[in-house]
Amino acid sequence: MLGRGLAPVLAVLALAGCGSDGGGPGSAGPGSGVRPEGAHVTIRVPADAPTITAGVSLARPGDLVLVAPGVYHESVKVSTERITLRGESRDGVVIDGRLRQPNGIVITAPGVAVQNLTVRGNTQNGVLVTGSARAAAGSPGQGGYDTGDEPVTFLRSFLVSHVTATGNGLYGIYAFSAQDGVIEHSYASGSPDSGIYVGQCKPCRIVVRDNVAELNAVGYEGTNASGEMYVVGNRFAGNRVGLTTSSDHQEKLLPQQGATIAGNLVSDNQQASTPEQADGGWGIGIGVDGGSDNTVVRNRITGNANAGLVITATSDIPANGNEVVDNVFATNGVDIGWAFPTATRGRGNCLRGNDFTTTAPAGLATSAACPTTDVSPSGTWARPKPPRGIPFTDVAAPAPQPQFPNATTAGPTVVPEVPVLPDLANIPLPAVSFLADQAVVRLE
Q1: 183-201 residue pLDDT tens
Q2: d(Cα 171, Cα 90) in Å, to the nearest integer?
């Protein structure tokens, strides 16, 4: 039975388009004919289609698939460009994988928006946005990113907004081999790797903003994510590691370069009741691991038991030319620590205008003042032993999260081909209470 929002539109389109096969781009569905320019249809689940997958299969470019509250046991694959998949209630629309499927939502078409729903209980990812056929098939390898000899193909243009991704077995929200997108106003917890992950893009032109990631092995991870990559105004507090930007031989497009990490709260990332990552990282706020030419500016980095910010090398890939500017550090094991193997010592890493107490090696404020092209010194410091983690299925449930505005009445979201990139001058230093109303982990 057609829902009230869909039936009148389809009737008009059918009369206007008699004789069309109804199966091509721009059609409202089988038998509906060619729709007028700019027209769109709202497909309601379950009123017009019994499942989200069925609703997505009916949708044509420009349509809205609007999902009523309920628990949906399915893996949704979106391969039609420019459709909007939106829940009527962020906490009430739940895609639950029951640990029987790798991904909750897989986006392989450009211009798709996913909004206002919860994705949980998948063995790999809550939401996957990718141009990689191998990743989309759920077979990128146990680590989630090695696609072998597959050529790099980008998905261009995407939006993930007001999504809760919790208790998934690898990543919460995962943009891999994708460009020109935004991940915003979302929440990620309980990931044994990272809550939000961006990998293998150059130039990325991706903005990760206004999100909360907590109770993950890593809050945010950017691997081989280079060029106009912005991580701004997020809360990465209460993970094992807050944020990393790194180079990794398991992915293509080495090395990582040119990310901007600004205005984030990165605090208390030594939570014991979290799943462990394979490399055992714990107690670190921000890690730059073989990444170069990154800007770390106006972040509040506090209460991380190992180190506030660490710059190091990835095997044979040095970290060069990273600028650490106008950040506030407090009550970390060591505020700023640089640790380089002798063979891969970085160059040109520098500090300016930061508020901090301790560095390793000592004296970095003077010896590494910006600008510099010098070889970066290396230091050591006492590192606490990490506690054992817990199963990702046992992580605390999220608090209620903000809804997408006017979810049931707004039309489809038009995703721009290229997002508006942040103006760094307008990104403030966050308060200690930043986005605290959305978090389970309360800071001291």
Answers
A1: 999 999 999 999 999 999 9
A2: 19
